[in-house]
Amino acid sequence: MHRDIEKVFFSEEDIKKRVKELGKQISADYNGKNPLLIGVLKGSFVFLADLVRALDIHCEMEFVACSSYGAGTETTGTVTLTKALSLDITGRDVVVVEDILDSGVTINFLKEYLLSLNPASVKVCTFLDKPARRKKPFSADYVGYTCEDAFVVGYGLDYAEQYRNLPYIGVLKPEVYA
Ligand code: IMP
Ligand code: MG
């Protein structure tokens, strides 16, 4: 285990097992379709890479990036798209792939935005869900794990851009933030 990690919440084995299950479920739900999976950068890149390899259907991938922070360090509550879509999603079955749902601000903005572009459908798949922290209600269509109210890193999730490469999800030792 990394020396900065205090506790592992979800091990590499837990994650592998759950991603396989999600892949089965999504493959069944989209059988015969060609969904467009839209990963929300940067956090979702690890989960998306594993998830698409657990799908046994035709699918395509796209990426967007969002920012809810202006110049400061506090969320402004206003989300901006920092990397827009590079293709037309009219009539497409879209599955948004997120690392974690926290306040719900980002995903509410993103879903509204995508729906305005006239896709056939929009569903949301998040690996982690922290419902305790919602500012705006939102419930995802596919959830890997519900997570307690703690700041977690690993499996794509960062603290100051570090720890995204950890193959498990855990919490940092308090002194790392000091
Ligand atoms: P929100 O739901 O609009 O608050 O934004 C969710 C985004 O905040 C996620 O996509 C992550 O990038 C980030 N985030 C939220 N909670 C955590 C956490 O525990 N660890 C790392 N990043 C987090
Ligand atoms: Mg994110």
Q: How would you describe this structure to a colleague?
A:
- By secondary structure, the chain is α/β, with parallel strands linked by helices.
- The chain has one domain (13-150): Rossmann fold (3-Layer(aba) Sandwich), CATH 3.40.50.2020.
- The chain is 24% helix and 34% strand.
- It has 4 helices and 9 strands, in the order βαβαβββαββββα.
- The strands form 2 sheets. Strands 4-3-2-5-6-7 form a 6-stranded mixed sheet, with helices on both faces.
- The model has no long low-confidence stretch (mean pLDDT 94).
Bound molecules: inosinic acid, magnesium ion
Taken as a percent bin, the fraction of beta residues is 25-35%
Number of strands: 9
Tally of individual helices: 4
Shape: globular
- What fold name goes in the CATH topology slot? Rossmann fold
Task: Quickly count the domains.
Answer: 1
The quaternary structure here is: single chain
The chain-level mean pLDDT equals 94
- Strands of the biggest beta sheet: in what spatial order? 4-3-2-5-6-7
Q: What is the CATH domain class?
A: Alpha Beta
Distance between the termini: 21 Å
Structure class: alpha/beta
The gyration radius over C-alpha positions equals 16 Å
Secondary-structure element pattern, one letter each? EHEHEEEHEEEEH
Please describe the biggest sheet, giving its number of strands, its sense, and whether it closes into a barrel.
6 strands, mixed
Stretches with pLDDT under 50, minimum 5 residues: none
